[in-house]
Specification:
Distance between the termini: 54 Å
Largest sheet: 8 strands, parallel, barrel
CATH architecture of the largest domain: Alpha-Beta Barrel
Strand content: 15-25%
Low-confidence stretches: none
Number of strands: 16
Number of helices: 15
Helix content: 40-55%
CATH superfamily of the largest domain: Queuine tRNA-ribosyltransferase-like
CATH class of the largest domain: Alpha Beta
Mean pLDDT: 96
CATH topology of the largest domain: TIM Barrel
């Protein structure tokens, strides 16, 4: 592998950017959507199928992998890429968000977090240093700094206290990460929905220096209007020559709104989670395949889609296999959803490069406003 990690902006349209992140394991076209492979797998998908949808990079979860099967075991088996048969770039989160959201028993101090596993109740400790070591053992290409994401709602005083500790942890993450050629470390901006706190966080991160910068603490229940309110200024607080990653987003209209506001990378479990629960995302919006209206419908989910679910199967079949509890239901719907999300990203990249993003957004919104096709 070559020793390189760099980001190039190739074109802009307003605040939106399209470019490429060069990594030793391959290039990541931006804006990029990262499918989530929580436990070293994108649920219901083979790795080569995920790649066929257009994904350049996957996300893995440090918290889940450290608990099962364990970072040391993955390292002994050749690292996460070999373990899950994904030779392309992988980003791993730090584990901080999952500790806060999944562990009912935890103790937070300046040093780190002691918590009980949601799997078996065993005790564990995560700090900036241990998170960096676990992610090193996993071998991820993009490593996230360890931070705290406070539960909302929270007072501005609580958000400020949490953000400042996360900035101290960011410095410790940077120190513990060290010099790892070919690997990148991203810092995470916090500060809730308060502009002054977000700006303070951005300045702290820039003074430390990272290979990329994430916007954390959004898409956690504050609503799209509040999220877009933060994104109206937050990306501009971060360096122009580094990737900007909005964590945990999102629905297609969230993605489009974030890209318009200058975001380069996103991730979300929505395409796979929706697929397993009978929900399909299309150009016309969301389709609930569980509904009886699809039982006799020979048409595809989306006549313009080229994924296997749409080119080989009818709505009637997808309705049947979901109702019958067949595994192929989650497989086909997840493939379709991931295909649609990656198709959306490719459309955004092309529109930015052509300077036609406004027209793309207008068409995107008009198609969604039409709603699903009428029942037969």
């Amino acid at each position: 592998m070559s020793d390189r990690f760099q980001f190039s902006v190739l074109a802009t349209d307003g605040r939106a950017r399209t470019g490429v992140i060069n990594t030793p394991r391959g290039d990541i076209r931006t804006p990029a959507f990262m499918p989530v492979g929580t436990a070293a797998t994108v649920k219901a998908m083979m790795p080569e199928s995920v790649r066929a949808t257009g994904a350049d990079i996957l996300l893995g979860n440090t918290y889940h992998l450290m608990l099962r099967p364990g970072a040391g075991r993955i390292a002994r088996l050749g690292g996460l890429h070999r373990f899950m048969n994904w030779p392309r770039p992988i980003l791993t989160d730090s584990g901080g968000f999952q500790v806060m959201s999944l562990s009912s028993l935890r103790k937070l101090t300046e040093e780190g977090v002691t918590f009980s596993s949601h799997v078996d109740g065993s005790k564990h400790f995560l700090s900036p240093e241990t998170s960096m070591e676990i992610q090193r053992q996993l071998g991820s290409d993009i490593v996230m700094a360890f931070d705290e994401c406070p539960a909302l709602p929270a007072s501005e005083e609580e958000v400020a206290k949490s953000m400042r500790m996360s900035m101290r942890w960011a410095q410790r993450s940077r120190d513990a990460f060290g010099d790892r050629p070919g690997h990148a470390l991203f810092g995470i901006m916090q500060g809730g929905v308060t502009r002054e706190l977000r700006e303070e966080s951005a300045e702290a991160l820039k003074s430390i220096g990272f290979d990329g910068y994430a916007i954390g603490g959004l898409a956690v229940g504050e609503g799209q209007e509040a999220m877009f309110g933060v994104l109206d200024y937050a990306p501009g607080c971060l360096p122009d020559d580094k990737p900007r990653y909005l964590m945990g987003v999102g629905k297609p209209d969230d993605i489009v709104g974030a890209v318009v506001r200058g975001v380069d990378m996103m991730d979300c479990v929505l395409p796979s989670r929706s697929g397993r629960t009978g929900q399909a995302w299309t150009r016309r919006g969301q389709v609930n395949i569980k509904n009886a209206r699809h039982a006799d419908d020979p048409r595809p989910l989306d006549e313009a889609c080229t994924c296997p679910a749409c080119t080989g199967y009818s709505r009637a079949y997808l309705h049947h296999v979901f109702r019958a509890g067949e595994m192929i239901s989650g497989m086909l719907l997840t493939w379709h959803n991931l295909h649609y999300f990656q198709e959306l990203m490719e459309g955004l990249r092309q529109a930015i490069a052509a300077g036609t993003l406004a027209e793309f957004v207008t068409e995107f919104e008009a198609m969604r406003a039409q709603g699903d096709i009428e029942p037969l």
